[in-house]
Amino acid sequence: MKGIYFKEPHNIEFKTDLSKPELKPDEVLVKVKYCGICGSDIESYETGALMLTGIILGHEFSGDVIEVGDKVKKIKIGTRVTANPNLPCGKCYWCIHDQENMCKDSYGLGLTHNGALAEYIKVKEDRLHKLPDNISYEEGAMVEPLAVATYAVQESGIKLGENAVVIGAGTIGLLTIQVLNAAGAGKIIVIEPVESKQKKALEVGADVVLNPKNWSKISKFTKKIGADHVFDCVAIPQTINNTMKIVKKGGHITFIGIHVEPFQVEGFLQLLLKNISIRGVFSYTNDTFTDTITLLEKRKINVKPLITKIIKLEEVPEMFKILSQLEHEEIKVLTKIQ
Ligand SMILES: [Zn+2]
Ligand SMILES: [Zn+2]
Fold first, then answer.
1. For residues 122-146, average pLDDT
2. Is residue 165 within 8 Å of residue 227, measured between CB atoms?
3. With the CA atoms of 259, 6, 38 and 211 taken in that order, what torsion angle do they form, in degrees rounded to the nearest 10?
4. Least packed by Cβ within 10 Å: which of 4, 16, 185, 256?
5. How far does the centroid of ligand 2 lie from the alpha carbon of residue 93, in Å?
6. pLDDT surpasses 90 at 48
């Protein structure tokens, strides 16, 4: 079988001799149609921080069920599917309270287990989600990143008409803008330095786009009160520190972007004086995954403008090099597998 093998940081290989997965009774075999390349794949490629080496990468995918294990009850051969790639333990405190993204013992497809940048992937039945007829395979591969944005907006508690600042117009930022609109947010202000991504933000429903050089202008667009909600999809020290400056007194900050290294926090006192609520969000629950498919099915979200390139499996190693450069114009790169 063909697939993308994560050998070590800065070294992934296109292989043609990988073994086809063998099913356990509760698993199904999916013939992969499309698989996206995620920021977290690139982060691991560069630092080795998130994914295990020695696995097939890829966790954002769609495909057809072509084989089912003996104990599989609900999924039939031929079903068009995507999957929640999280593999929680199902037994811990968080799992039994439908907070599987906080599972104390979680694994993941394309993270600790073989993923979908390959011709076939095996998936446990309970991780599969059927794709409605009006969702294409390309869109199906976008459900996973969209679930991240959906969960962030759900957890932020934003109310009808409240304004929001979204920092970063990459995949997650552009999806967050759209979910905010679906949730009835008021004015949406986006901070983004790259011109092509600024245009994309307006195309998908942002009201105002500002270059990071113009942080101070946010005040003008929020009636000099500050933002009701801030969503930081970038999470570098500068953006993290700025969130506390631009949020209103009593406002909310939601961190979606990942930041690993220690850094200096500025203006901690503001957090108290302004009564700011801060929360981090990670991944999503299985219920959110279902909600996300409904949003797509009802055409509340348009993921198509985010797909900037479709490549072949053998082109993936070269694309990882491009995507790990600081300045590139790609948003979501999908791999068409078959
Ligand atoms: Zn992802
Ligand atoms: Zn658990």
1. 98
2. yes
3. 50
4. 16
5. 7
6. no
Residue type, 230: V
Residue 212 has pLDDT above 90, yes or no: yes
* CA distances, 26 to each of 78, 122, 124, 147 (Å): 17, 10, 6, 25
Q: What is the pLDDT of residue 327?
A: 75
Q: Using the mean position of ligand 2's atoms as its centre, give its distance from the Cα of residue 95 in Å.
A: 4
Ligand 2 centroid–CA 282 distance in Å is 15
Looking at the CA of 57, which ligand is closest?
A: 1
Between the CA of residue 169 and those of 143, 202, 263, 324, what are the distances in Å? 18, 10, 23, 17
- What's the confidence (pLDDT) of residue 158? 98
Summarize the confidence of residues 278-300 as an average pLDDT: 97
pLDDT of residue 267: 85
Query: How many angstroms is it from 222 CA to the middle of ligand 1?
Result: 32
Q: Look up tokens 């933002």; give the residue.
A: 227
Hunting for tokens 């009160």 — which residue is that? 225
Ligand at shortest distance from the CA of 99: 2
Reading the block at residue 121, the tokens are 């992937």
Look up tokens 């966790």; give the residue: 59
Helix or strand holding residue 188 (H, E): strand 188-191
Please tell me the total number of residues recorded for the chain in this structure: 338
Cα–Cα dist 70/27, whole Å: 9
Structural domains of the chain, with CATH: 3-142+303-336 (3.90.180.10), 147-280 (3.40.50.720)
Q: Which ligand is nearest to the CA of 142?
A: 1
**Residue carrying the six token digits 């799992």:** 95
Average pLDDT of 214-222?
94
Element (H, E) at 161: none
Ligand nearest to the CA of 108: 1
